[in-house]
Amino acid sequence: MSDSGNEVAGVARRGRPPRINREGIVKAARTLPLDTLTMQAVADVLGVDRKALSYHVSDLRGLRELVAFDVFESEVGRVELPTGGDWREVIRLYTRATRDAVVTVGALAMHIRLPGAGGVRTLEPIERVLKALVDAGFGVEESGRILLLLTEVAYSTGRDTFHADDTGVHPDVPDVARTLMGAPEDDFPVLRDLVDAQQSAGPDDGQLEFDLAVIIAGLERRLEPDPPRA
Known about the structure:
This protein is mostly helical. Among the domains are: about 80-165 and about 205-225; about 165-200, no CATH class. The protein has helices at about 5-15, 20-30, 40-45, 60-75, 85-105, 125-135, 140-165, 175-180, 190-200, 205-225. The protein is flat, with a radius of gyration of 25 Å. The relative contact order is 0.08.
């Protein structure tokens, strides 16, 4: 058989290149460590040419956004927000779930965009939070501002939790402690007490729960009717 015949036979044995889609790309990307996550590495896992990925994701930034959103969506989707439940419990569940999702996403958290970019299903928890707030008496625009506040708090505490050391200490605390070592012992007594307390406290949900308690107390106050004018 001629060389050309062998080449044709070889192509026939190999068959067509595997078809890929966004779901497959994300699945392949999630098998790779973050420091090795590249377009070429994902293409190698899928057994396709790198150019084939460009139909679904434009560049490495877009790839990281896809992976980050997939992890985020999966984690938030684990929590079922009650329909018609007390607005306080709804926002607690949403904020905790969002914080936990950011922790799971980890170093890719900077690539998370606000939920809603991934399709109708990703809008469901947002709609439930907004409806719970509107049903409680908040206006639509005000409810949107509350949702944004809760999301920002969740993202912030999630990133801090991810970057905390093995003891769960806030990532800024060790730097403050080192700075205090260079100051006279009698300076900054309250700050020293705070640093000591946080270094010995260990991991907990204290900051997030404090934030939620303050937010809920403030929102309850906003729902109270204005006192009658004298």
